[in-house]
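Running this now, will post back.
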Amino acid sequence: DAANALGGQDRVAALQSITVEGEGDAPNVGQNRLPDSELPNWKVTEYRRTTDLTNGRTDMTQVREAQFQFAGALVQRQHQGLDGDVAVNYPPSGEAARGSETQARDRRREALHHPLPAIRAALAETSQVSNRREEGDDDVVDVRTAQGDVIQLAVSRATKLPTRVSMLDGHPNLG
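Update: finished.
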């Protein structure tokens, strides 16, 4: 139903890439000085993420400015990507460097947070869709990809459009 609400399964499958641009805030979770203190925040003044849906690649660039006291550069330019199972980092020198397996996993999973890759993952023959349930006005399912990533995809019962994509994970510091 969600693929049909977005123009049909053929149209969703035919998409080759998506690009998201914008600006916003990026708080440093767990980096506040005291538990009750405000989180230190980065103001993201430029952001661009392109996801190549056909070839499993992403490219992200951003400029962020520290809105808190910081011993490093107050303005940071970041550029990182994913090519299949390989994370790629572009330091300020511009020379591409291979990232870690953890970075590759995190970037692959982050790409699933956009509704279109999430819907495509749910439709893939190699994925498993299970645990259909109702949460408020949404129908929610768990989607397990061929790589073992699991997302929760919520779809409005009224419009059949995706309303959110979420993922549960453990963190060494946050639990």
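The helical segments are 2-5, 9-14, 101-111, 115-123. More later if anyone needs it.
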